[in-house]
Amino acid sequence: MGPEHSSARLERFLQLSAEDNWQVANCTTPANYFHILRRQIRRPFRKPLILMTPKSLLRHKLCVSTLADMGPGSKFQRIIPEVSSNMVDDKKIRRVVLCSGKVYYDLAAERDARGIKDIAIVRVEELYPFPAKPLAEQFKRYSKAEIVWCQEEPQNMGAWFYIDRRIEAALNDAGRKERPIYVGRVDAASPATGYLKRHNKEQAEIVDKALGK
Q1: What's the pLDDT at 213?
Q2: What angle do CA 99, 104, 108 make, to 5 degrees?
Q3: What long-range pairs does 159-167 form, CB within 8 A, spacing at least 24?
Q4: Which of 44, 71, 116, 192 sits CB 3.0–4.6 Å from 4 for a disulfide?
């Protein structure tokens, strides 16, 4: 028992993702959650929808949307680009942190607390099918920034082994020859430490490393 003692095993769903067999997503806003459910019903075909969104976001004070986010002209976002208006020019962004799920709120809160304005955070809301084109556009936008993938799970779990080569391919599509940098927990046999203090310490270290400390 302990933090993360119940694991959805995202990596196993992603290992089985092929031939457009289903959809795997991790929504970070109520609006995107609404839209992906609406899309599921409105589409003229049916495929399984795997949602990794944790129940902790139900009570997270920053996880909010407006009615306009769900109104006319709005839709599901496969990625959510940087939303802060308090950033330096795109060409001066030194790092882009890619993430999926609730770790975004830890990263954004700490970035704001430190007054960092040259690190953009891009959320990958739909992991499969992989949003290669939208990400390639982000890589072109931040052409001088290094690319980091941040996850809470150990390196041998979560999305990393699925997503690293796909990020690299999207970078190539954007005309960039480089590899993404991994930030997250080290390999582990268990998805949980079993100790809250150790979990919190590791979480703080992940955020520090993602923000370049």
Answers
A1: 65
A2: 125
A3: 159/10, 159/11, 159/14, 159/100, 159/124, 159/127, 160/184, 161/11, 162/11, 162/14, 162/15, 162/17, 162/127, 162/128, 163/14, 163/124, 163/127, 163/130, 166/130, 166/132, 167/98, 167/135
A4: 192
Residue 64, token pair as written in the block:
């909010």
Give the predicted TM-score (pTM) of the model: 0.93
Q: How is the chain split into domains, by residue range?
A: 10-210
What average pLDDT does the segment 48-65 reach? Answer: 91
Over the chain, what HEC string results? CCCCCCCCCHHHHHHCCCCCCCEEECCCCHHHHHHHHHHHHHCCCCCCEEECCCHHHHCCCCCCCCHHHHCCCCCCCCEECCCCCCCCCHHHCCEEEEECCCHHHHHHHHHHHHCCCCEEEEEECEEECCCHHHHHHHHHHCCCCEEEEEEEEECCCCCHHHHHHHHHHHHHHCCCCCCCEEEEECCCCCCCCCCHHHHHHHHHHHHHHHCCC
129 preceded by cis ω (within 30°)?
A: yes
Cα distance between residue 110 and residue 21, in whole Å: 37
- Helix 196-210 and helix 103-114: axis angle, to 10°? 60
Place of tokens 């031939």: 19
CATH number of 10-210: 3.40.50.11610
The gap from C-alpha 186 to its chain's centroid, in whole angstroms, comes to 18
